[in-house]
Amino acid sequence: MSRQHYLKAGEVAFSKMDKVSAELLALTYGSLVTQLLKDKEEIESVNVQLEKMGYNIGIRLVDEFLAKSGIGPCQDFRDTAEVIAKVALKMFLNVTADVTGWNSDLTACTLVLHDNPLNEFVELPASMAGLKYGELICGVIRGGLEQVHMRVSCTFVKDVLKGDDTSEIALEFKEILKEEFVDEDE
Amino acid sequence: MLYSFYLYYRHYCVYHEAFNHGRVAKDLRGDQKLISGLLFSMKSFCQKINPKDLGPNALGNPFRSYSTPEYKLHYFESLSGYKLLFMTDPSVPLLRELLSFIYGSLVVEQIIKNPTFDIGERLTGHPLAPAFSKALNDCVQATPFFASLPQ
Amino acid sequence: MKTSILDRQFSKSKGEVSLSLYAFLFSEMVQYCLNNVEQSQQLEDKLHEVGVRVGYRVLDLLCYRDKANRREVRLLSMLSFVSQTCWRALFGHAGDLLKGQDSELEYMINDKSLLLTKFISVPRDFSHINCGAYAAGIVEGILQSAEFPCEASAHTVEESTNPPTRSTTVLIRFASEVVEREKRLQNS
């Protein structure tokens, strides 16, 4: 499936969604992050909590994605990354990313975000350099992929909020989760 | 004529409804396990004897239906592991699109997106079940096959 | 070189995202607050707190964008700004502004289909949770930040329409000095 095809699919999918102000999302998310920073002592546990919340979102969001985007099974992990970057991110966040930096095995890549609506109005003080502000998005991706039987690791490695030129997510394929037949006993 | 609807998440049945006085199993749980085993085996089997070689990693499209002289089983599966099936009389044409619709508009919108429902939880007996049942009934009763006599 | 956030333009509205993602995020937020409080009352307080913080920022943003830095000092203009401009920017439509019958300190903003309560179902264990507490927090944050000290709370009413809808009312109770100041301004 070509990049063009996915770009178009992303636009079509987003156009069908009910919309809400990006500012409201950004302000709500910012307020949530502030609350977490207040509740937790360590910045790392905020990162973990954001990722976990993202995961909880991802395991549900994925079904809306599958139902509304019409995207079928991916051929390989390259395909998967492109779908996330061009269709999924577009459909929910109204942004797209570039997929670059593939390793030779084609199991790891980088998603370069042109824009991150969550970052709107945000400035990170130097004392919070360890905070992965947008880590919720990484959790969403991990949760969503787990539901389609793929275990991955996903985390922010560069962030414009920290002075980097771009915001980048490192996405790495770990394993296919086999569908096992388990005799479920109540 | 529609006899029944099943919704599975992974390998266990989260919802079941019988229509038109369809077969009421004496051992519902046992039946549900049997069907689950059937789906798993069928998918695997169909893939193995596929005359077209799709390669080792291809998920492929699982089987869509099977028929006996007495009934037809229609099957739809989402990539995320939700399995929907109808049991109907053999003359009913393939209802895959209807199942897909039920997945997208009912299961996703009413159940998965609802925070009171834990993913993987049983829907039968859940507070959301009556509304889901109503929506499901509205949906299937609108089809021409709902109560059509077996040909 | 990192551009300071203060140098960035935000005169244009930034755009839109899917309602779905927002709903999921809000849901997770409610869930988080729920797991971090002990009694149901505190959930509302926590949501309120989160809302207040949003309100502080909303004021800065919208004031700058819509009024070119002119501060509202009159009570009704401010309330109008909240129920019209702010409400529209946040929830997509205007709210209805009403005067409280019982006290000159009270005003209400009513919303027949508040975005938040439309899709947030009440968690099983708590039957009286009102996520309008979040909206009330936003209102309180906006007004406090604009030097109109007050307390805002939310109440939902099930309308007997078909299908039944929930109408949310944010009750604003101003500090007495606000009303006194308004009277002084009126007389001058």
TrEMBL record, chain A:
<comment type="similarity">
    <text>Belongs to the TRAPP small subunits family. BET3 subfamily.</text>
</comment>
<dbReference type="InterPro" id="IPR016721">
    <property type="entry name" value="Bet3"/>
</dbReference>
<dbReference type="GO" id="GO:0048193">
    <property type="term" value="P:Golgi vesicle transport"/>
</dbReference>
<keyword id="KW-0333">Golgi apparatus</keyword>
<comment type="subunit">
    <text>Homodimer.</text>
</comment>
<dbReference type="InterPro" id="IPR007194">
    <property type="entry name" value="TRAPP_component"/>
</dbReference>
<keyword id="KW-0931">ER-Golgi transport</keyword>
<protein>
    <recommendedName>
        <fullName>Trafficking protein particle complex subunit</fullName>
    </recommendedName>
</protein>
<dbReference type="GO" id="GO:0005794">
    <property type="term" value="C:Golgi apparatus"/>
</dbReference>
<dbReference type="GO" id="GO:0016236">
    <property type="term" value="P:macroautophagy"/>
</dbReference>
<comment type="function">
    <text>May play a role in vesicular transport from endoplasmic reticulum to Golgi.</text>
</comment>
<dbReference type="GO" id="GO:0005783">
    <property type="term" value="C:endoplasmic reticulum"/>
</dbReference>
<dbReference type="InterPro" id="IPR024096">
    <property type="entry name" value="NO_sig/Golgi_transp_ligand-bd"/>
</dbReference>
<keyword id="KW-0813">Transport</keyword>
<dbReference type="GO" id="GO:0030008">
    <property type="term" value="C:TRAPP complex"/>
</dbReference>
Automatic annotation (TrEMBL), chain B:
<dbReference type="GO" id="GO:0006888">
    <property type="term" value="P:endoplasmic reticulum to Golgi vesicle-mediated transport"/>
</dbReference>
<dbReference type="GO" id="GO:0005783">
    <property type="term" value="C:endoplasmic reticulum"/>
</dbReference>
<protein>
    <recommendedName>
        <fullName>Trafficking protein particle complex subunit</fullName>
    </recommendedName>
</protein>
<keyword id="KW-0256">Endoplasmic reticulum</keyword>
<comment type="subunit">
    <text>Part of the multisubunit transport protein particle (TRAPP) complex.</text>
</comment>
<keyword id="KW-0931">ER-Golgi transport</keyword>
<dbReference type="InterPro" id="IPR011012">
    <property type="entry name" value="Longin-like_dom_sf"/>
</dbReference>
<keyword id="KW-0333">Golgi apparatus</keyword>
<dbReference type="Pfam" id="PF04099">
    <property type="entry name" value="Sybindin"/>
</dbReference>
<keyword id="KW-0813">Transport</keyword>
<dbReference type="GO" id="GO:0030008">
    <property type="term" value="C:TRAPP complex"/>
</dbReference>
<comment type="similarity">
    <text>Belongs to the TRAPP small subunits family. BET5 subfamily.</text>
</comment>
<dbReference type="GO" id="GO:0005794">
    <property type="term" value="C:Golgi apparatus"/>
</dbReference>
<dbReference type="InterPro" id="IPR007233">
    <property type="entry name" value="TRAPPC"/>
</dbReference>
Automatic annotation (TrEMBL), chain C:
<keyword id="KW-0256">Endoplasmic reticulum</keyword>
<dbReference type="GO" id="GO:0006888">
    <property type="term" value="P:endoplasmic reticulum to Golgi vesicle-mediated transport"/>
</dbReference>
<comment type="subunit">
    <text>Part of the multisubunit TRAPP (transport protein particle) complex.</text>
</comment>
<dbReference type="GO" id="GO:1990072">
    <property type="term" value="C:TRAPPIII protein complex"/>
</dbReference>
<dbReference type="InterPro" id="IPR016696">
    <property type="entry name" value="TRAPP-I_su5"/>
</dbReference>
<dbReference type="InterPro" id="IPR007194">
    <property type="entry name" value="TRAPP_component"/>
</dbReference>
<dbReference type="InterPro" id="IPR024096">
    <property type="entry name" value="NO_sig/Golgi_transp_ligand-bd"/>
</dbReference>
<comment type="similarity">
    <text>Belongs to the TRAPP small subunits family. BET3 subfamily.</text>
</comment>
<dbReference type="GO" id="GO:1990071">
    <property type="term" value="C:TRAPPII protein complex"/>
</dbReference>
<protein>
    <recommendedName>
        <fullName>Trafficking protein particle complex subunit</fullName>
    </recommendedName>
</protein>
<dbReference type="GO" id="GO:1990070">
    <property type="term" value="C:TRAPPI protein complex"/>
</dbReference>
<dbReference type="Pfam" id="PF04051">
    <property type="entry name" value="TRAPP"/>
</dbReference>
<keyword id="KW-0333">Golgi apparatus</keyword>
<keyword id="KW-0813">Transport</keyword>
<dbReference type="GO" id="GO:0005783">
    <property type="term" value="C:endoplasmic reticulum"/>
</dbReference>
